[in-house]
Amino acid sequence: MPHIAIISSSVRTGRNTHRVALFFQKYITDNNLATAEILDLKEYNFPIFEERFKFQEEPLKKTIEFADKIKAADGVIIATPEYNGGYPASLKNVIDLLYEEWHRKPIGIVTVSAGPFGGAQVMRALQFSLWKMHAWVVPAMYPVPKVESNYDEQGNPTDKEATEKRAKSFMAEMLWCIEAKQKMETAQ
């Protein structure tokens, strides 16, 4: 069974992105699609890094743990809010921290906004950064508009049927990419 790391990238007080990260963790495990764990950047509370992980002489224990979890994951879902058309510094910080760990890693992008467009602008910005890191960005994306009215604080969607229908399609693409990568690695 594949293992998926879900990065909850918002560190703000009163954050809403974490609601969607919780939803995906529940959805994945409840449907027996994979094992899933949330890597909560608020809990990690990383400092601003001055050097890439592989060049750090004495990396923090939590930095080593985070890098190991990304490397060990078969795929990563990044749940990010849209801040002024971009993604939060907390996420940029950990993307730039790693390099080899992102290489050919299937990554699904989940964007969240309080407005009606679900973080459409942040998708491009994040996608471009991940491509530069040689990550494999999954073609299906999952934008979440009006997050506060669509998910409660525990990650339960207000319209379970419609939300799970969208999640099923997104996860099918994510799992296909994970399986394709595993087959390619076995063939080499």
Topology record:
Elements: E1 3-8, H1 17-30, E2 35-40, H2 41-44, H3 61-72, E3 75-81, H4 89-97, E4 106-112, H5 120-132, E5 136-144, H6 147-150, H7 160-187
Parallel strand pairs: 1-2, 1-3, 3-4, 4-5
The best one-word shape is globular
Beta content comes to 15-25%
Number of domains: 1
CATH topology: Rossmann fold
How many helices? 7
Mean pLDDT: 94
Strand arrangement across the biggest beta sheet: 2-1-3-4-5
Compute the CA-based radius of gyration: 16 Å
Structural class: alpha/beta
Q: Describe the biggest sheet? A: 5 strands, parallel
DSSP, total strands: 5
Protein described:
- The protein is an alpha/beta fold and 188 residues long.
- The chain has a single domain (3-187), classed as Flavodoxin domain (Rossmann fold), CATH 3.40.50.
- It has helices spanning 17-30, 41-44, 61-72, 89-97, 120-132, 147-150, 160-187, and strands spanning 3-8, 35-40, 75-81, 106-112, 136-144.
- It has a 5-stranded parallel beta sheet with strand order 2-1-3-4-5, sandwiched between helices.
- The protein is globular.
